[in-house]
Amino acid sequence: MSGAVQQQGSMASAGNALTAAQGDWPGDWPGDGGGNWPRNPRLYDINPNSGSTAGGNTVVLTGANLQGTFQVTFGGTPATNVTPNQYGNSVTVTAPPHAAGAVSVVATTPYGTTNALSYTYIAVPVGPTVSALVPNTGPTAGGTAFAIIGTNLTGASVTFNGVSATGVSINGTGTVLTGTTPAGPAGNVPVVVTTPLGSTTVAGGFTYVAPPPLPVATAITPTSGTAAGGTAFVITGSNLNGASVTFNGVAATGVSVNPAGTALVGFTPAGAVGLATVVVTTAFGTATVPGGYTYTAPPLPVATAITPTSGTAAGGTAFVITGSNLNGASVTFNGVAATGLSVNPAGTAIIGFTPAGMAGPATVAVTTLGGSTTVAGGYTYV
Predict the structure, then answer these.
(1) Superfamily of segment(s) 42-122
(2) Which of 144, 156, 238, 361 has its CA 20 to 30 A from that of 227?
């Protein structure tokens, strides 16, 4: 009997000792009737254990006693979307951005902070970026030198509306790309920069501009005129606005163009007898008039009379010679040139002053591009 009582007492003592031992586990849950297991949070594994420096990837931490985890840090930077599961054996988070390298990852619960696990941030190469395209316009014929400013341009190619640029070159830092535009249609087209790591479209693209129209000269009227020049002419065509005209390289005078740019008028310069090349020039180019223009020998001058027929040998006497075809004429008295000559537009009268001469009769010669003639009766110095 006493042995049985002693055995019961020993069992009671052992039970009390077990109860006391259970109550001594650290981190007991409040109200759980005495702790049944440790509540210190622990981490065992991290998956994945690496990721981009940009962050944003999902990471799962496995461990124990992770109930209530409210913060996970990667190298001291808090993760986002911290979600512990109901059993306390894992936490899912979104990794924050961080500089490249290994960092410590720890989780914090209401019952403490876990041990650290290692996570490695990896710098992932990124594709090209473009901040500017200079210039952003050029002719449809292509051939415009351009520069693209940006980053990560190493190894890049460039297309304009899907057509490759030529002569592409990139500086050592991958920040400046130069090249030459291909030909393209008038209007705005996309410009795409492509490297082995990706592509980007240049904001605003590139605008191809159609070249301004070249002048067109279809005909000249009349097609011939005196070598003395001064013949009124008309050139018809298109895109003649702002044009100048040359005959064998000599500029016409009095040039004017109608507002529509379809007709040009002017006066021929003097020229050598024969065919002359007529060229119309605008700010956008030149055009040669088909058939050109033929200079003809001017008619011989005709001098019918001189008034007065005599004057002082000292010279300086005003005179008038009448006739025809006198434009551009010079006059000599016994081979000495008269002065102050002027010819009316019709070429029918010359005025001037006699040079000094010897007393007696003098031969008066009138000379133009068409030839020479003498005034009947001459002039007498007295």
Answers:
(1) Immunoglobulins (2.60.40.10)
(2) 238
What tokens does 97 get? 């951005």
In angstroms, the CA 362 to CA 44 distance is: 134
177 neighbors 168 (Cβ within 8 angstroms): yes
Rounded to whole angstroms, how far apart are CA atoms 40 and 20?
19
Q: Which two tokens stand for residue 139?
A: 């002719």
The Cβ-side half-sphere exposure at 49, using a 13 Å CA radius, reads 10
In this structure, the number of other CB atoms found within 10 A of the CB of residue 305 comes to 12
Q: Which CATH architecture has domain 216-296?
A: Sandwich (2.60)
User: In the structure encoding, which two tokens stand for residue 125, read together?
Assistant: 């190469």
34 touches 28 (CB < 8 A): yes
Nearest to 148 by CA among 137, 136, 163, 166: 136
Q: Which fold has domain 129-209?
A: Immunoglobulin-like (2.60.40)
- Note the pLDDT tens digit of each residue in 265-277: 999 999 999 999 9
Asked whether the beta carbons of 175 and 151 are under 8 A apart, the reply is yes
Tell the CATH superfamily of the 302-381 domain: Immunoglobulins (2.60.40.10)
pLDDT digits (tens, 9 = 90+) for 3-49: 433 333 433 333 333 333 333 334 444 434 344 455 799 999 999 99
Task: Return the DSSP state at 48.
Answer: S
Q: Where are the domains of the chain?
A: 42-122, 129-209, 216-296, 302-381
DSSP string, 173-234: TS-EEEEEPPP--SEEE-EEEEETTEEEEPTT-EEEEPPPPPPEEEEEESSEEETT---EEE
First to last CA, the chain: 192
